[in-house]
Amino acid sequence: MRIPAHSVCTAVRDDIVAGVHERGSRLTEELLARRYGVSRVPVREALRTLEAEGFVVTRRHAGACVAEPTEREAADVLEMRMLLEPLGAARAAERRTEAHLKVLRGLVRLGQERARRGSSDDLRSLGGWFHETLAQASGSPSLTSMLTQLRHKIAWMYVVQAPPSPVDSWAEHGAIVDAVARGDGERARALTALHAERATGAHRLRFTGAANRVRTSQHAVNTSGPRY
């Protein structure tokens, strides 16, 4: 049975985000095919997709390698999320279905309950499901795909600390859902922008140091084209 390339792509991306494939390491088709139990064809397709997404780069004499993002690129990812998430919330206020609202409200109730109890173990995953559902409620597959890709990159580039007040964070989620339910796109946009801005302070880069500063400097003078 032929394994779809998108399944291989998901597996490789997940391993890159988790650090199984380290930054700068080579990704040979033969080794990846053995690791994931597939032929080299879906691996080749997956690597092309991951290169387009910015997780993989092709280097002369080395082939496909895990990308090494600079501090500037990491900052751009957060800035893009802060621009796109409010847009998604505004669209969700116009296009959400009752099914979307049911899921969003259920996640808010669960998140608020866990936050009040101090059960923080699964709050991060609940928050991820909340924002994924909110993006899907926008009714825009392209926007949803971009936001999902940004969340993958943020998880790869940053350590995200727990918010100082999870109860307040989930209260913000609840206010966003209320605005979406009322069809108030401008309020949903404004609340989501404020929520994203506050959340950004909890992000700490996974990579720092002189080597990264050198890469940042080199990237600034290299005008051959964007890396993603």
From TrEMBL:
<dbReference type="InterPro" id="IPR036388">
    <property type="entry name" value="WH-like_DNA-bd_sf"/>
</dbReference>
<dbReference type="InterPro" id="IPR011711">
    <property type="entry name" value="GntR_C"/>
</dbReference>
<keyword id="KW-0805">Transcription regulation</keyword>
<feature type="domain" description="HTH gntR-type">
    <location>
        <begin position="2"/>
        <end position="69"/>
    </location>
</feature>
<dbReference type="InterPro" id="IPR008920">
    <property type="entry name" value="TF_FadR/GntR_C"/>
</dbReference>
<dbReference type="Pfam" id="PF07729">
    <property type="entry name" value="FCD"/>
</dbReference>
<dbReference type="Pfam" id="PF00392">
    <property type="entry name" value="GntR"/>
</dbReference>
<protein>
    <submittedName>
        <fullName>GntR family transcriptional regulator</fullName>
    </submittedName>
</protein>
<dbReference type="InterPro" id="IPR036390">
    <property type="entry name" value="WH_DNA-bd_sf"/>
</dbReference>
<keyword id="KW-0238">DNA-binding</keyword>
<dbReference type="InterPro" id="IPR000524">
    <property type="entry name" value="Tscrpt_reg_HTH_GntR"/>
</dbReference>
<keyword id="KW-0804">Transcription</keyword>
